[in-house]
Amino acid sequence: MKDARVCSIELESEKIAFLEQMAATYGLPDVGKAVRCLVNYARENPDRHEAIFAEVRCLDC
Hints:
By secondary structure, the protein is mainly alpha-helical.
């Protein structure tokens, strides 16, 4: 059995809308699954960590 825990995160409305759109586009059951897909991608691609996490992005400034 997976060691799953509930985690609450704060996101701006546009980010939630994006995740909802991705969930609908790819037939995912909910936004939580979309977030898990993103986390899994980062975990499975350690060579992409620098590109994912080191660059500072501000799409909402």
